[in-house]
Write a structure and sequence with these properties.
By secondary structure, the chain is of the alpha/beta class. The chain has a domain of 235 residues: 3-Layer(aba) Sandwich (Rossmann fold), CATH 3.40.50. Helix content is 40%, strand content 16%. Strands 3-2-1-4-5-6-10 form a seven-stranded parallel sheet, sandwiched between helices. The longest helix has 23 residues. It is globular. The model has no long low-confidence stretch (mean pLDDT 96). The structure holds nicotinamide-adenine-dinucleotide and 2'deoxy-thymidine-5'-diphospho-alpha-D-glucose. The site of nicotinamide-adenine-dinucleotide has 31 residues, from helix 1, helix 4, strand 5 and strand 7.
């Protein structure tokens, strides 16, 4: 499925107003000739401001819709007649899934099921050459594999062992996506990616929380001992990987995507503080590191994630390009220069307070 093929290609991006989805939409409009339909419910995590840079394009369409609403989703397939679906829409934050799992079940499981069924009906009615080229890329997470100890890596055949309501709901959706390929023949591919960072990430995740707490002069919350390990990938690298898998991946296969960039959380926080010290020195003159505060751990906090991404590297020729040092500097600068976007993302329902733990411990 080549997005820049001779004929005009139409792709759906669910969750296209979120962090990774909006990066994908901006990429597809800027770097391909495809028509792109962003389908997004605009929950707290989605905003049209994130796709505003490409909103002027006559190849971009925006549809505010809930992927769990079957009649609405069927109507979108009828109206736009897409050639491919990048499925990213999800409730994505582990801490929120601890506080309120219902939305995770509804969107991540029922929503994915609804979208798969609508895609299947659409695909069944396509004429044969278009049906052969049609693709459904289900975008998932490495958290479905559970946690690692100090050694080892997640591979595509690592058994699923999710720890949080979020990762359990993503694991369920992954199973459904694979089954829609095995049982019904829908041309599904699945990707499982590590922690992304970069511009436009909703400020509930570690990196934007640290940046905003730091410059607001507030305690920077580090869960537990700060020794948990994540594998960090710059969001633009993830977007390139998704396009590569869509275009070159084998139907029915799973591809792990990672940054080969393992870091303890405390090292990530130190890196952010050091960039801020250089670029936005604190009024009190001390290092931002002085604001680091260890807080109660996340329940069920996975110890370590690390991706073996050799399959996508060797079979499809993708590899991460951005170094953590340059990526984190770009990210910090973006947040410093986009305070309006950050302010608009926060409101009376959420203003950077601790989630996923008893509020008295915040
Ligand atoms: P995000 O929370 O920033 O964005 C999710 C988007 O989905 C939002 O725009 C939201 O409005 C939309 N959405 C939520 N429920 C919806 C519904 N019912 N119908 C339509 N739209 C809905 O998430 P993200 O970090 O951009 O993650 C995107 C996808 O990538 C998710 O599937 C996530 O599981 C996966 N993923 C994320 C990471 C990461 O580090 N952020 C890593 C690996 C995989
Ligand atoms: O691994 C991929 C996953 O990465 C994605 O599937 C999720 O959608 C995405 O949110 C992310 O999950 P994490 O739970 O790893 O990300 P988060 O930014 O919430 O936390 C990263 C680490 O930092 C984790 O060990 C918890 C810790 N943390 C987090 C926050 C918000 C803190 O120490 N302090 C914080 O304030």
């Amino acid at each position: 499925m080549y997005i820049n093929s001779g004929s005009q290609t139409t792709v759906f991006v669910t969750g296209g107003a979120g962090f990774i989805g909006s990066a994908l939409v901006r990429h597809l409009i800027r770097k391909t000739s495809a028509s792109v339909v962003t389908i997004d419910k605009l929950t707290y995590a989605g905003t049209r401001a994130s796709i505003e840079p490409v909103a002027h394009s006559d190849r971009h369409y925006f549809e505010q819709a809930d992927i769990a609403n079957a009649s609405v989703v069927n109507d979108l397939f009828d109206r736009y007649d897409p050639d491919a679906v990048f499925h990213l829409a999800a409730e994505s934050h582990v801490d929120r899934s601890i506080d309120g799992p219902a939305a995770f079940i509804e969107t991540n499981i029922l929503g994915s099921y609804t979208l798969l069924e609508a895609a299947r009906e659409h695909w069944r009615d396509l004429e044969s050459s278009r049906a052969e080229d049609f693709r459904f890329l289900h975008v998932s997470t490495d958290e479905v594999y559970g946690e690692l100890g100090d050694e080892g890596y997640f591979r595509e055949d690592t058994p699923y062992d999710p720890s949080s309501p979020y990762s359990a709901s993503k694991a369920s959706a992954d199973h459904l996506a694979r089954v829609w390929q095995r049982t019904y023949g829908l041309p599904v591919l699945v990707t499982n990616c590590s922690n992304n960072y970069g511009p436009y990430q909703y400020p509930e995740k570690l990196i934007p929380v640290v940046i905003l707490k730091a410059i607001d002069g507030e305690p920077i919350p580090v869960y537990g001992t700060g020794e948990n390990v994540r594998d960090w990938l710059y969001v633009e690298d993830h977007v390139r990987a998704l396009r590569t898998v869509m275009e070159e991946g084998t139907v029915g296969e799973t591809y792990n995507i990672g940054g080969r960039c393992e870091k303890q959380n405390l090292d990530v926080v130190h890196a952010i503080c050091d960039v801020l010290d250089e670029e936005y020195s604190a009024p009190h003159g001390n290092s931002y590191r002085d604001q680091i505060t260890f807080v109660e751990d996340r329940p069920g906090h996975d110890w370590r994630y690390a991706i073996d991404c050799s399959k996508i590297e060797e079979e499809l020729g993708w590899s991460p390009k951005e170094s953590f040092e340059s990526g984190i500097r770009k990210t910090v600068r973006w947040y410093l220069n986009h305070r309006d976007w950050c302010r608009a993302a926060l409101d009376e329902t959420y203003d950077l307070e601790r989630l996923g733990a008893d509020k008295t411990d915040a």
